[in-house]
Design brief:
There is one protein chain. By secondary structure, the protein is mainly alpha-helical. The chain contains 17 helices and eight strands. It has helices at 27-49, 52-58, 64-78, 82-93, 95-118, 135-164, 172-206, 209-229, 243-256, 318-335, 337-345, 350-355, 375-400, 408-440, 456-480, 486-515, 533-557, and strands spanning 125-127, 130-132, 284-285, 305-306, 309-310, 361-362, 366-367, 563-564. The strands form four sheets. A two-stranded antiparallel ribbon has the order 1-2. A hairpin with a 2-residue loop joins strand 4 and strand 5 (309-310). Helix 1 runs parallel beside helix 7 (172-206). The longest helix is centred in the N-terminal third of the chain and has 35 residues, at 172-206. 51% of the residues are buried.
Length: 568
């Protein structure tokens, strides 16, 4: 019996494919390599993306709207490709090998991007009148960017789940540490982002884009080295077959039996008789009373058994049905994160363009790039993450009685409120800035005599909102995912970033089309002093408020999953 407790009880194995020894593998000794990998990878990502809108404007000669839309489209792709990596990890290769393979693609993309900014013939020719890129140079630049987007697709959905796999969910002590892991995982992201938004943005604007992209490329190679260094300490979850296939089996079986009545007695629904699930590496799930149409797939009828065999396309277990139900229940919560991500995407677009019009001096000689203001978002996250983990949770626990202080849904809801306030604050600042322009007739002045540091509150509020919503999403989607779909469900909150960026592009495009009719300059002209960026912020604030009200209804309706039995 004592020997049983030496090994993880969640089905994980070590690097030699033996049951994972709890004393020799996993926990924080393995996670330090994963956190190091994430810190360096995020330094690489934010090091080239934080200031990308300025690179497209300066070196590729693109206007405000075009550069902004190209950044949000690319960023959106970075967060839609995780669905590819997540599916391959869950179904075929496992998280470790998907991270390894896609990291190589990522490194190739970073190297190529550095070459487009530094190698003669690949980088645009520039003079005092600006830069004149050729079509082939633009194509190579965007090829590099989208290779990075593909590489990110394998890494993002798997790293957080792979880190959480290092803690046994069946061990109470390790389960508590898993909750803290997500907080420290997000903190490591922002340590990398801090260096990127401060040092690297300054390098790009003052030393050169070759160095500015070369340093992130080196950081990515260091990230890969950190990840492989911990291989002998990791715990590995084996791939469990295609989750997409199991989902379609339930859909097909329930459609075939659309005329069948679901019995009131849940014990009459089909399930394996032993304590283990027939889905490899998964626990059984308790039957839930919602979405009863899908229960038809688990109703036994004549013809389901052919020569003693059961086709999963005709009859599915309760656990398999509950897998699909779990995904369906997650979708409304997932959708509520899209508007939040649209707000978040403004830090790399509209916040930067707003900052470009303001006084960027720190003292008489030093000038801070407008994109570097995102370091205050990062500092906010670095400040609030340990405060939340060590102080807010303990205080909230006294009033709520919940071991995590707030439920995951409550935590995400608080972040949605804070993001709405951030847009209101950004809008107020723009109203003040435009009033200053009108009062002093500064319409054609390149830099307003108004400090860029007035933008700090809006960045700080977005960072605080991230600590509540983004970390809450990481933990929520991992916990509520069926065991065999952890990578896939961890990719879901990442896709909200994708759709948030695409929505931002759509909103900017529509706003630009509507407001520039009849010869008007529009809300977001190239000369921001003659525009109305404040109206765009008000639009986002209203959408955020409506989204929060819908989220309250979704949270009240949501049913948490319940596990029973042992791993299959």
């Amino acid at each position: 019996m004592a020997e049983d407790y030496m090994y993880a009880r969640d089905g994980t194995v070590d690097s030699h494919n033996n049951p994972a020894n709890k004393n020799k593998t996993g926990k924080w000794k393995a996670c330090r390599f994963i956190l190091g990998n994430e810190c360096c990878e995020r330094l690489a990502h934010y090091g080239m993306s934080t200031n990308l809108v300025n690179y497209l404007q300066i070196r590729l000669n693109q206007g405000n709207v075009t550069a902004s839309n190209n950044v949000t489209n690319w960023s959106g792709t970075c967060y839609i490709t995780p669905l590819i990596g997540a599916f391959l990890a869950d179904a075929y290769f496992g998280r470790y090998w998907i991270i390894a393979i896609f990291s190589i693609v990522y490194c190739v993309g970073m190297t190529l991007l550095t070459m487009t900014a530094s190698v003669e013939g690949l980088n645009p020719s520039c003079d005092e009148n600006g830069c004149d890129p050729t079509k082939s140079q633009v194509v190579v630049c965007f090829l590099a960017l989208y290779l990075i987007a593909l590489g990110t697709g394998g890494i993002k959905p798997c790293v957080s789940s792979f880190g959480a796999d290092q803690f046994d969910a069946n061990d109470e002590a390790e389960r508590k540490k898993k909750s803290s892991f997500f907080n420290w995982f997000f903190l490591s992201i922002n340590v990398g982002a801090l260096v990127a938004s401060s040092v690297l943005v300054w390098v790009q604007m003052n030393v050169g884009w070759g160095w500015g992209f070369g340093i992130p490329a080196v950081a990515m190679f260091i990230a890969v080295g950190s990840f492989f260094s911990g291989s002998r300490l990791y715990r590995f979850q084996k791939p469990r077959g295609s989750p997409i296939t199991r989902i379609f089996q339930v859909l097909v079986a329930s459609m075939r039996k659309s005329h069948v009545k679901v019995p009131d007695d849940k014990t009459l629904l089909y399930e394996t008789t032993d304590a283990e699930s027939n889905i490899k590496g998964s626990c059984k799930l308790e039957h839930s009373k919602t979405l009863r149409f899908f229960d038809k797939a688990a109703v036994e009828v004549e013809g389901d058994h052919v020569q003693g065999l059961i086709s999963p396309w005709k009859l599915c277990t309760v656990t398999q049905v509950e897998e699909l139900k779990s995904i369906v229940r997650l979708l409304p919560v997932w959708a509520s994160g899209i508007i939040f991500s649209t707000v978040y995407s403004q830090m790399s677009t509209m916040f930067v363009l707003q900052g470009n019009t303001m006084d960027q001096h720190m003292g008489p000689n030093f000038k801070i790039p407008s994109a570097s203001l995102s370091l205050f978002d990062t500092l906010s996250v670095i400040f609030w993450t340990p405060v939340y983990d060590r102080i807010i949770v303990r205080i909230a626990r006294k009033y709520t009685g919940h071991e995590r202080g707030f439920t995951q849904l409550q935590r995400m809801g608080i972040g949605l409120v804070l993001s709405t306030i951030a847009m209101i604050v950004a809008g107020i600042l723009e109203v003040i800035r435009l009033n200053y322009v009108r009062r002093h007739n500064y319409y054609d002045l390149e830099y307003m005599p108004m400090s860029i540091f007035w933008q700090v509150p809006q960045y700080f509020l977005v960072g605080c909102a991230e600590v509540f919503t983004v970390i809450g999403q990481l933990e929520f989607f991992y916990d509520q995912a069926p065991d065999a779909m952890r990578s896939l469900c961890s990719a879901l909150p990442l896709t909200t970033v994708a759709f948030g960026n695409y929505l931002s592009t759509l909103l900017v495009t529509i706003v630009n089309y509507v407001t520039t009719r009849n010869g008007n300059l529009g809300w977001i002209p190239d000369n921001m002093n003659r525009g109305h960026l404040d109206y765009f912020y008000w639009l986002l604030a209203i959408l955020s408020l409506l989204n929060f009200l819908v989220y309250l209804w979704i949270s009240k309706w949501y049913t948490y999953k319940k596990v029973t039995g042992r791993l299959g």
